[in-house]
Amino acid sequence: MERIGALGRTKWALALLSSAALLSSAALLAGAASAAPVVDTGQVLCYDATDEIDPPLPGQPFHGQDAQYEGAVPSYTLSQDGLTVYDQNTGLTWVQSPDTNGDGTLDSDDKLTWSEFQNYPATLNAARFGGFDDWRTPTIKELYSLIDFRGVDPSGPTYPDLIPFIDTDYFDFVYGDESAGERIIDAQYWSNTEYVGTVFGGEAAVFGVNFADGRIKGYPRDFGPGGAMTQFARYVRGDAGCGVNDLTDNGDGTITDHTTGLMWTRADNGEGLIWEDALAYAEELVFAGCDDWRLPNAKELQSIVDYTRSPSTTGSAAIHPIFDCTQIVNEADQADYPCFWSSTTHANWSSDPGTYGAYVAFGRAMGYFGPPGQESWVDVHGAGAQRSDPKDGDPDDWPYGHGPQGDAIRIFNFVRCVRDADELSGNDDAGEAHGEGPRLEATPNPAPGEARLRYTLPSEDRASLRIYDASGRHLRSVVDRTAIPREGTLLWDGRGADGRMAAPGVYFAQLRCRRCTATTTILLVR
Question: Which DSSP state fits 154?
Answer without folding.
Answer: -
